[in-house]
Backbone:
């Protein structure tokens, strides 16, 4: 069995995994996290009149959950930061697919993502380990739809995905500059995700965020 | 140092350099005259009468309008600028700015600084008390019928005549703003019913229909939400009896008639099978033709793989379905007469909704996909972000009204004034160091 890694695409802080790090929902709110009853960590929930302490996890939406993705993750980065898929050298090829519909009700860059399918062989052959979705992407790579084989140099090796968008006004999908991830494993492979906690620093190309055992 | 780390460091230096300028601006309190000229409309040049056929969405000479552009100057620059709402008389714009330090920690949801801009006079000012940007929940800026604005801060409310020293502190019950319809709820055309979409948990959502006056629940529909981030979109009312739920994971879009029951839109109206496991999710948007009972529904796919190669359009007036010449749907205009869509060549198209097989017109081509757009409230104008700034088109004919060069700033066209006279646009430097607010006058 071997382990195949995808590393953080840029440096930044971990700001969400299964729950949003700086966002809570009041236990007395009748609606969920998509209904505006948010509050910051350890503050009184204004929308409940100030009497309800906000201490319930505000669960992070899993983009692509309906098609088998799991294990969400958000890593902060300044707008304009470059997004690369950094991968261990035992991943021999990837296929890039455009993903639309990251946001429920907003179009534009923040609604776009790139799904990277991972293969153990050249030219998308061998075993398909699974995929990782990079969501909220500007200046998306022109390689959408293409298969890219491992480059000769670099450990990890990398494929350009795009850049981190700025935050548009008037929407609730993308409130801070970051990259959102979710991933899935194909049958026979098992998926792992970093156990780092809120506020942990991650390094571009150095912090493994997902891995597949096969 | 990795390239991305180096990039961030350079931007941090730029942001710190910018801080001094922003502090100078933010030290001002009350009314200040603006020394930034208001952008004016570029002379409109009628676009060519040549149109592309809907069957062949290939770039035509229409792709680049021939109108000369005028230069737009920002009315404010900051590390981040977020336009908000216009006053009912279309004169005043509320917006927020953020310091570099706030932007560097934006995931902690910093409050920012609230500003107001008078588009008729160029005057800029800040309110007597700041209110934090509304990331979630209650909007702290409420425009009042008497021309004043009520501002809600953490500890109190004030009513203020914008850019004057006349304000009144509101205490106790008077400070309550009453119920506000959120982005996940919508009123029926006659205002008697309210339909609200909300999440129960990560795998279940419900639509609740209530009597808008009494609050009594009339109907509850449960469904599995698709997996987009942000607020669930509000249901779209097509009549006083029926509304559309845009996307569900288990059933696709739903057409709910309170008198007739629930229809699965994809198979019933379009003959399309819902197969979310194949990597695509079906979604729909709908609009009623203003002043009529006719409505149209656009069906399209989203996700990694497209199960629909073209957007499908349903016409209620004749029960017809047609395939549009592009793969991705943009939006209907607010009056329901026009629609926009995108093809895989990163081009945006405009088309009159009726009649069937109307000619689609290529508006622009650029790298972003799909790029942001903003309809005026009456549906007569469409603003789009172009590679050089802002372009505004007339709908549904697609003629160019004007365009504005915004220099190094890429644009999110954000918010039209209620009378469609002014457009607020958020500018950003693609490398991330600065943002700007533009307000252009559109004749």
Residues:
């Amino acid at each position: 069995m071997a382990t195949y890694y995808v590393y953080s695409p840029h440096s930044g802080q971990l700001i969400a995994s299964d729950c949003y790090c700086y966002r809570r929902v009041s236990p007395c709110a009748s609606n969920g996290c998509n209904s505006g009853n948010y509050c910051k960590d350890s503050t009184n929930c204004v929308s409940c009149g100030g009497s309800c302490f906000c201490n319930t996890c505000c669960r992070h939406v899993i983009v692509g959950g309906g098609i088998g993705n799991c294990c969400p993750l958000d890593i902060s980065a300044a707008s304009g930061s470059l997004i690369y898929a950094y991968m261990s050298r035992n991943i021999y090829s990837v296929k890039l697919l455009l993903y639309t519909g990251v946001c429920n009700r907003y179009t534009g860059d923040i609604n776009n993502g790139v799904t990277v399918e991972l293969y153990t062989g050249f030219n998308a052959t061998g075993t398909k380990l699974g995929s990782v979705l990079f969501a909220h992407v500007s200046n998306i790579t022109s390689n959408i739809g293409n298969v890219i084989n491992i480059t000769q140099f670099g450990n990890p090796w990398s494929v350009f995905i795009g850049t981190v968008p700025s935050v548009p006004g008037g929407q609730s999908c993308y409130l801070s500059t970051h990259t959102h991830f979710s991933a899935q494993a194909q049958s026979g492979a098992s998926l792992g995700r970093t156990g780092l906690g809120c506020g942990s620093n991650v390094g571009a190309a150095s912090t493994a965020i997902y891995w597949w055992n096969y | 140092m990795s390239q991305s780390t180096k990039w961030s460091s350079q931007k941090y230096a730029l942001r710190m350099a910018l801080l001094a300028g922003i502090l100078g601006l933010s030290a001002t309190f009350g009314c200040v005259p603006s020394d930034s000229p208001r952008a004016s409309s570029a002379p409109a040049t009628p676009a060519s009468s040549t149109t592309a056929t809907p069957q062949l969405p290939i770039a035509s000479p229409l792709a680049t309008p021939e109108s000369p552009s005028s230069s737009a100057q920002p009315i404010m620059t900051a590390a981040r600028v977020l336009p908000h709402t216009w006053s009912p008389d279309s004169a005043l714009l509320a917006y927020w700015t953020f310091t570099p330090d706030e932007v560097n920690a934006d995931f902690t949801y910093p409050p920012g600084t609230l500003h107001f801009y008078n588009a008729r006079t160029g005057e800029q000012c800040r309110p007597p008390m700041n209110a934090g940007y509304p990331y979630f929940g209650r909007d702290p800026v409420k425009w009042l019928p008497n021309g004043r604005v009520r501002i809600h801060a953490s500890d109190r409310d004030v009513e203020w005549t914008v850019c004057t020293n006349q304000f009144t502190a509101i205490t106790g019950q008077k400070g309550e703003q009453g119920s506000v319809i959120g982005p996940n709820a919508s009123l029926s055309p006659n205002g008697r019913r309210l339909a609200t979409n909300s999440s129960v948990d990560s795998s279940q959502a419900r639509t609740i229909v209530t009597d808008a006056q009494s609050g009594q629940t009339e109907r509850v529909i449960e469904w599995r939400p698709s997996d987009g981030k942000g607020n669930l979109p509000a249901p779209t009312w097509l009549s006083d009896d029926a509304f559309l739920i845009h996307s569900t994971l288990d059933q696709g879009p739903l057409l709910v008639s309170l008198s007739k029951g629930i229809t699965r839109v994809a198979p019933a109206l379009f003959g399309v099978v819902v197969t979310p496991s194949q990597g695509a999710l079906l979604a729909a948007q709908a609009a009623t033709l203003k002043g009529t009972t006719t409505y149209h529904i656009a069906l399209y796919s989203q996700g990694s793989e497209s199960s629909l190669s073209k957007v499908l359009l349903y016409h209620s007036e004749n029960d017809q379905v047609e395939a549009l010449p592009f793969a991705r749907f943009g939006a209907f205009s607010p009056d329901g007469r026009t629609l926009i869509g995108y093809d895989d060549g990163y081009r945006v198209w405009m088309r009159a909704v009726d009649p069937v097989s109307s000619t689609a017109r290529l508006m622009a081509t650029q790298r972003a996909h799909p790029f942001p757009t903003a309809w005026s409230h009456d549906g007569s104008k469409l603003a789009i972000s172009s590679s050089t700034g802002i372009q505004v088109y007339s709908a549904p004919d697609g003629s160019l009204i004007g365009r504005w060069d915004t220099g190094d700033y890429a644009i999110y066209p954000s918010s039209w004034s209620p009378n469609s006279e002014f457009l607020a646009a958020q500018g950003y430097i693609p490398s991330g160091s600065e943002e700007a607010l533009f307000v252009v006058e559109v004749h």
Summary: The mean pLDDT of chain B is 80. The radius of gyration of chain B is 23 Å. Chain B has three helices and 34 strands.
